[in-house]
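Running this now, will post back.
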Amino acid sequence: MEARCVMFDIGGVLETTPATGWDEEWERRLGLPPGSMHRRLGDVWEAGSLGRMTESEVRGRVGAVLGLDVKGTEAFMADLWDEYLGSPNEDLIAYVRGLRTRCRLGILSNSFVGAREREQELYGFGDLVEDVRDIVYSHEIGIGKPAPEAFAVACERLRVRPADCLFVDDAEANVLAAEAAGMRGLLFVGNTATVAGIEEHLARR
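Update: finished.
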C-alpha cells in the first residue's frame, strides 16, 4: 500500500471555470431579485452534489421551482453545465498524463450528478488514472470535501496511505482538510507552482 500518490481537484485545477454570469442573466429573464435563484434552488444543488437526485429529478425540480417549461429547463441546464465544465487546463493535464509511470494518480472532486459522463466525453479524465474508480465524485459517494470521510474514501480507492499522498485543490479549506486527514496539501495558484510542488513531493524519501 506504500506508494507515492498525487490527487487532484477538478474545477479550478484541471478545469478553468470562470464565472459566465449565466445565473444573473437567468434572474433578469425571470424577473427574480439578484441572488434569489440559487437560494430557491439550494436544496436541489445540494441534492445533486451528493447524489440524492437523478439528473431527471433535478430538471423536474428546476422547472417546477422556476416555472420553466421543458425547453426552458433544458436551456437553463445547458447554461449551468457550460460554466460548470469550463475549459480544460491543457498544460496541467498534459503534465499529469506524463505522471502515470511515476506515481498513483487520483481525482477527488465536489461534483454534480452527470459530471462524470460529461467530463469524460469532453476531457477524458478517466484516461489519466489507472482505474475509473480512482476518480471520486461527491455525487457518487454522497460525501463532499472538506469532510474527512471524502479523503478517506479516495485513499482507500487508490490503495494509498494518506501520508504518501499530495492533494491539489484551489480551495484553501479543502487543502487544510486534506492535511488534517494526514495528507500533504498544495493550494493551486497556477501551473508552474503546482508542477514544482508535485516534483518536490515525488522526490521525497
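The longest helix spans residues 70-85. More later if anyone needs it.
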